[in-house]
Specification:
Blueprint lengths: L1 E5 L9 H9 L8 E5 L34 E4 L2 E6 L2 E4 L9 E3 L2 E3 L6 E4 L2 E6 L2 E4 L9 E3 L2 E3 L13 E3 L5 E2 L3 E4 L2 E4 L7 E4 L2 E4 L5 H9 L36 H8 L24 H11 L6 H9 L61 E6 L21 E4 L14 E3 L11 E2 L5
Parallel strand pairs: 1-2
Antiparallel strand pairs: 3-4, 4-5, 6-7, 8-9, 9-10, 11-12, 13-14, 15-18, 16-17, 18-22, 19-20, 20-21
Length: 435
């Protein structure tokens, strides 16, 4: 089939290059020819600079309503160039050059940021410029910034924006905790000094832990490297080879284990729990997660320091008053003790900011109890960035914070669980980035 487009010429002396450029923009479809009656060619209406269809871009004009030869601009994502005082539209930008800027197709918009793998990149002069690769404590990349690995990409629920009381906060937010001196358990018998560190604002969500599991981590098939996760300044606190046998054999087994008998928040497929804290993880899995995520398990002293507000020595993260409705505890988060079920574990940060600790950390009491690095036992002394690492095979590890089923404890409460117990969650600490 042939299509014949017949138009009339109105302006004498119209150069051939104009209609050839116009003709080049018309792509015939398969089996269909296009014939232009050149003697009857009609010029397209002139686009005035900055007028309708110009995309708001203006340029010099060779006359009223015309354009200057060689001038370029954009109409949306379509470049156009001026020839003989008339705008000639080119093909819309797409593929690897999806943006129209200055009348040309380019890869990106000026000032735009993005990621190439775990490398942030920024757009300058219409081209991508890669920056240094992301490394610990933020080894992942999202929206052109370095983030914990579990939030790389940030599209999945519980791994990007969506946490906090108004569901508008970054689930991977981490806060600097300025170092200082304080008394562990608010007892002057146990002084300690803590260096600056970072602590995640929220407990690890189901969504973040799912990213870890789907990356096939946390099993005997892919354990952390020897020594990984060592707390800065604390020798021999990293991953030990003989711990690997305590991980699940493979990802299928790990997924089954996460659906434990004690209020599991994990589900076989992503669902409504993605913003709730992960529960039912062993100490080994918590350690492996923090290593993969770019951090380490907090020491008991670090956890206690952040929860009590350092030298403020707060009995509760929010202050000295034992008020209800500031933490998810006793099944309802408001002091009620009936109807215990998985809904007692609330989306992380549900009581922010009223229930937050001094430096902005949420759920330091209630929701999911949290593993620490320390073995159970007496507080080590003296304590300068200390931890109790003298574990034997049967010794438990310190757990802090209480959970959504338990009563409301205070910041002095210490508990102990065996490393393979599945009744806990996790929050990661991180070193201060080397500037």
């Amino acid at each position: 089939m042939r299509r014949v487009v017949t138009v009339k010429r109105r302006r004498a002396g119209h150069r051939s290059r104009t209609w050839l450029a116009l003709l080049s923009t018309v792509a015939p479809t398969a089996g269909c020819g296009i014939v232009l009656g050149l003697d009857d060619f009609e010029d397209a209406p002139r686009s005035s600079a900055g007028g309708a269809g110009s995309g708001g871009e203006s340029g010099s004009s060779s006359g009223a309503g015309g354009c200057a030869d060689g001038e370029r601009d954009c109409v949306g994502d379509t470049p156009r160039q001026c020839a003989d005082g008339e705008w000639v539209h080119q093909r819309p930008c797409s593929g690897e050059q999806p943006v129209c800027a200055g009348g040309r197709c380019v890869p990106c918009t000026e000032g735009e940021r993005g990621c190439q793998g775990n490398r942030p990149r920024r757009c300058e002069g219409g081209a991508w410029l890669e920056e240094a690769a992301c490394v610990t404590p933020f080894p992942g990349c999202r929206d052109g910034a370095c983030v914990p690995t579990s939030c790389q990409g940030g599209e999945a629920a519980g791994t990007g924006v969506g946490c906090g009381a108004d569901r508008d906060k970054d689930c991977c937010a981490t806060e600097v905790v300025p170092g200082g001196a304080f008394f562990r358990s608010n007892d002057e018998s146990y002084p300690a000094t803590i260096s600056d560190f970072r602590l995640d604002r929220y407990e690890v969500t189901v969504g973040r832990f799912r990213a870890f599991v789907e990356a096939l981590k946390g099993t005997q098939a892919d354990p952390p490297p020897m020594g990984a996760g060592e707390r800065p300044g604390l020798a021999r606190s990293g991953w030990q080879f003989n711990w690997t046998s305590s991980l699940s054999a493979n990802t299928t087994e790990l997924k089954a284990q996460l659906e434990c008998d004690y209020y599991p928040t994990w589900t076989a497929a992503p669902g409504p729990n993605e913003h709730r804290p992960i529960h039912c993880v062993t100490w080994y899995e918590a350690f492996a997660f923090c290593v993969w995520d770019g951090g380490h398990l907090p020491t008991e002293a670090e956890w206690n320091y952040a929860a009590a507000g350092g030298a403020e020595q707060n009995a509760y993260p929010w202050g000295s008053s034992r008020e209800r409705g500031f933490a998810a505890n006793e099944c309802r988060g408001n002091g009620a003790s009936t109807g215990c079920n998985i809904s007692a574990f609330l989306p992380v940060g549900s009581f922010s900011p009223s229930g937050d600790a001094r430096w902005g950390h949420a759920d330091m009491l209630g929701n999911s109890s949290e593993w620490t690095l320390d073995c159970s036992g007496d507080y080590p002394a003296p304590c300068e960035d200390c931890a109790n690492l003298g574990c034997s095979g049967s010794t438990g590890h310190v757990v802090r914070g209480g959970n959504a089923i338990a009563p409301l404890y205070d910041t002095t409460f210490r508990n102990s669980e065996y490393r393979t117990s599945r009744t806990q969650g996790v929050r990661c600490a991180r070193k201060i980035r080397d500037e």
